């Protein structure tokens, strides 16, 4: 209308119309906690690396985690980062020399599937905090709010060489909530352990677990088709929630009046997945169900980072590789229930053999997490027995570089490359040997465990004064 008046000569530059004088009132900021994007990281990491000095680990057989074995290798570490890796490198002035002749060095091990802290030791009902089995979809819960940093399992995992680990909710629900990636250091709070800059993950589960849990309660899902309907309904709700927030923000940006949607913690998490900010880690055993979950992800526009357990992954290794999906599995856990029946020891090796395949050996267990190297050795032996040519230098990636990739921290750790965190393990034998033990474990270049020095053998507060405490 204003433009039309100006053309007719009825508008005056010195006397603007009332319409031109009207401007939208600025939108009031939402109250704290009502805008899901205002403080996306409501529980920020307070992790601080332990003090360290420049060191040179010399003379070792070094598995870099990149598919390379360097004999008579030297690893230079400065300011908590890997500075250089090579054969017979000169040791710069001012560096402490660690004599590793006759020993082996690997990147710090990474467990891509653990429940330490949420199913803490001792295993009593009071410490059972991993499964919020009150609704098939509990995307609103975060595993970190159950983690007990005093779980003695963190210390025993560190003795086994584990420097970083993903703590997941359990698998009783279709969507069980957020997982959290931790640095394996002694700490007072879970925030002190949180891996800086690591993404959040979403735990999903298909197959027997959710249908058994909720079928026993006389409610959906009680079948696999009920499982799939439940996932799809959840993602539809998430897409609609995201659309409503996008519409609200678009109107505010144009100066229009708009009412914000009510914040929903579960849909915040699912919306984060749809935006590509939160990784999906999907418990799934059977090949056919993994294929269905891939179809669902394509229907709603998200990506599955890894299938966990995945004992039938070898049947669809090509499909997984085509879709850039890792699998986190074991070597010889099978037959515990029907969906585990076709598990084989060469599963990881066969997935690894597919072009672009990404195999991960994980624990899902407070004992196995102490021996991930042995589980990887079993998978390696089974692969070779199946006729595959696999080097130890490649197989070490199953417990270092590949889990780092699967949980989104590979730019920071998982391999011994310049600029990455100096997370490394010194072994007294080849890590694929049944006799291998860790001599020293480093996080960010600092000694976190030393088998020969009691000063670097941390005990949790819970351990202190317990019967047998101090027994090695």
Structure overview:
By secondary structure, the chain is an alpha/beta fold. It is built from 12 helices and 16 strands. Strand 12 (326-329), helix 9 (347-353) and strand 13 (359-361) form a beta-alpha-beta unit. Helix 5 (224-253) crosses helix 6 (265-274), helix 5 packs parallel to helix 7 and helix 9 (347-353) packs across helix 10. The model is unreliable at 1-23 (pLDDT under 50).
Keywords:
472 residues, alpha/beta, 8-stranded mixed beta sheet, 12 helices, globular, disordered N terminus
Distance between the termini: 87 Å
The chain-level structural class is alpha/beta
Helix content: 25-40%
The SSE order reads: HHEEEEEEHEEEHHHEHEHEHEHHHEEE
**Count of individual helical segments:** 12
Q: How many strands, which pairing sense, and closed or not: the largest β-sheet?
A: 8 strands, mixed
Topology:
Elements: H1 2-8, H2 18-21, E1 55-63, E2 69-78, E3 81-87, E4 96-99, E5 104-107, E6 109-114, H3 152-159, E7 162-167, E8 175-183, E9 200-205, H4 208-215, H5 224-253, H6 265-274, E10 278-284, H7 287-300, E11 304-309, H8 317-322, E12 326-329, H9 347-353, E13 359-361, H10 372-385, H11 392-395, H12 401-406, E14 424-427, E15 438-443, E16 446-450
């Amino acid at each position: 209308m204003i433009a039309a008046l100006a053309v007719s000569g009825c508008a005056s530059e010195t006397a603007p119309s009332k319409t031109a004088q009207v401007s939208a009132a600025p939108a009031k900021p939402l109250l704290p906690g009502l805008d899901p994007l205002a403080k996306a990281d409501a529980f920020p990491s307070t992790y601080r690396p332990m003090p360290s000095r420049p060191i040179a680990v010399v003379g070792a057989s070094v598995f870099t985690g990149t598919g390379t074995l360097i004999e008579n290798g030297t690893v230079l570490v400065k300011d908590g980062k890997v500075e250089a890796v090579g054969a017979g490198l000169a040791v710069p002035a001012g560096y402490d020399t660690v004599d590793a002749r006759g020993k082996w060095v690997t990147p710090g091990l990474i467990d891509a599937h653990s429940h330490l802290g949420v199913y803490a030791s001792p295993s009593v009902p009071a410490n059972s905090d991993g499964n919020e089995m009150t609704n098939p979809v509990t995307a609103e819960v975060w595993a970190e709010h159950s983690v007990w940093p005093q779980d003695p399992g963190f210390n025993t995992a560190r003795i086994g060489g584990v420097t970083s680990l993903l703590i997941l909710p359990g698998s009783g629900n279709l969507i069980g909530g957020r997982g959290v990636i931790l640095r394996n250091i002694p700490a007072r709070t879970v925030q002190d352990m949180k891996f800086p800059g690591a993404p959040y993950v979403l735990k999903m589960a298909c197959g027997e677990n959710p249908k058994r849990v909720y079928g026993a309660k006389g409610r959906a899902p009680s079948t696999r088709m009920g499982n799939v309907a439940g996932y799809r309904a959840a993602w539809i709700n998430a897409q609609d929630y995201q659309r409503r927030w996008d519409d609200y923000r678009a109107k505010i940006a144009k100066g229009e009046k708009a009412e914000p949607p009510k914040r929903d913690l579960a849909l915040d998490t699912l919306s984060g997945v749809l935006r590509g900010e939160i990784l999906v880690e999907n418990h799934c055993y059977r090949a056919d169900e993994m294929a269905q979950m891939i179809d669902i992800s394509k229907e709603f526009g998200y990506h599955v980072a890894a299938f966990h357990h995945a004992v039938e992954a070898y049947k669809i290794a090509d499909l997984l590789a085509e879709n850039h999906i890792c699998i986190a599995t074991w070597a010889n856990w099978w037959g515990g229930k029907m969906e585990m029946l076709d598990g084989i020891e060469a599963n990881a090796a066969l997935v690894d053999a597919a072009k672009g395949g990404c195999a991960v050996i994980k624990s899902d267990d407070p004992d196995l997490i102490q021996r991930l190297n042995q589980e990887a050795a079993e998978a390696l032996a089974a692969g070779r027995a199946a006729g595959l040519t696999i080097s130890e230098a490649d197989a070490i990636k199953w417990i270092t570089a590949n889990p780092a990739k699967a949980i989104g921290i590979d730019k920071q750790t998982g391999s011994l490359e310049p600029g990455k965190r100096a997370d490394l393990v010194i072994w007294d034998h080849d890590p694929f040997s049944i006799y291998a033990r860790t001599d020293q474990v480093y996080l960010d270049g600092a000694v976190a465990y030393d088998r020969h020095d009691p000063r670097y053998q941390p005990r949790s507060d819970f351990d202190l004064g317990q019967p047998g405490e101090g027994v090695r």
